[in-house]
């Protein structure tokens, strides 16, 4: 079954829920994009659109950040598919689908370029309009693709962060950590935490640890070690895992990325890789992890801030954004 036909089935099922309301609630995932243009233009730009709007990230394999599905606005299922949550329209001002979308803009759209409006054919819908000049060809589409990806990815990241903090920020925990221990993290209220020696572990395994686990640990060494190479940092992580994590994790480094980074003016070294449980556990498990060794000279400490994810059978991009957001909230200073 093709992408278009799969989505058409979903769309027709959704129609049964909104048949009595022409402006029913939009359906589809936030990172699922319906790309709309004439068939001849799509034939010229298909590869460019997929390349620009479906970049991949490394989780437990290459995972697309967005999924793009093409739709012909004159096609059989257009009336249904135009109700999707995330729509991307390419066309000239004489096209009826463009006119319907542009009519929802607070300001008149007259110049070629890209714009955004909402709730055109469904409630909760976001429409990105790319108004093309008369006689437009592939180059007129391609020149906007990079900026469109930047815009949509930024909006998806905001969406992911907002979803994570729907429970609220645990500011009381953040204050306690900073006052008593000299570091802090901005964690959602739904995270539990525990301390084991000088290792602090923050975990969210809702709704079930069989389905989803997000965990961050913080530890440190004093004085600051001289060795900041990937091998020594991974060895440190192995110690933390073996002594303080609930399940063992082996490192899978085939697609790892490691480099020194500037973390808010502090020297740090970051490793992005994958973990997997040992073969003797009897069941396969794995996921991505991000480890940062951060030097806090004012405290004469090097911190190990480690975040890992277990999300079997789920798209992981949203969860990785959330994990990164928590790691980015790390601060250290005098207790």
Give structural notes:
The chain contains eight helices and 16 strands. The chain is elongated and about 70 Å long. With 335 residues, it is an alpha+beta fold. The chain folds into two domains: 3-163, Uracil-DNA Glycosylase, subunit E (3-Layer(aba) Sandwich), CATH 3.40.470; 168-332, Protein Transport Mog1p, Chain A (3-Layer(aba) Sandwich), CATH 3.40.1000.10. The model is unreliable at 1-21 (pLDDT under 50). 32% of the residues lie in helices and 31% in strands. The longest helix has 27 residues, at 138-164.
**Low-confidence runs:** 1-21
So what's the overall shape?
elongated
- Provide a count of the helices: 8
CATH homologous superfamily of the largest domain, by name?
Mog1/PsbP, alpha/beta/alpha sandwich
CATH class of the largest domain: Alpha Beta
Average pLDDT, rounded to a whole number, is 91
Please describe the biggest sheet, giving its number of strands, its sense, and whether it closes into a barrel.
7 strands, antiparallel
Order of helices and strands: HEHEEEHEHEEHHEEEEHEEEEHE
Secondary structure category: alpha+beta
Topology:
Elements: H1 3-18, E1 32-36, H2 39-53, E2 56-58, E3 62-64, E4 67-71, H3 78-81, E5 86-91, H4 96-102, E6 113-118, E7 126-131, H5 138-164, H6 171-181, E8 183-184, E9 192-196, E10 199-204, E11 213-221, H7 230-244, E12 250-263, E13 266-276, E14 286-296, E15 301-310, H8 317-328, E16 331-332
Parallel strand pairs: 1-4, 1-5, 5-7
Antiparallel strand pairs: 2-3, 6-7, 8-16, 9-10, 10-11, 11-15, 12-13, 13-14, 14-15
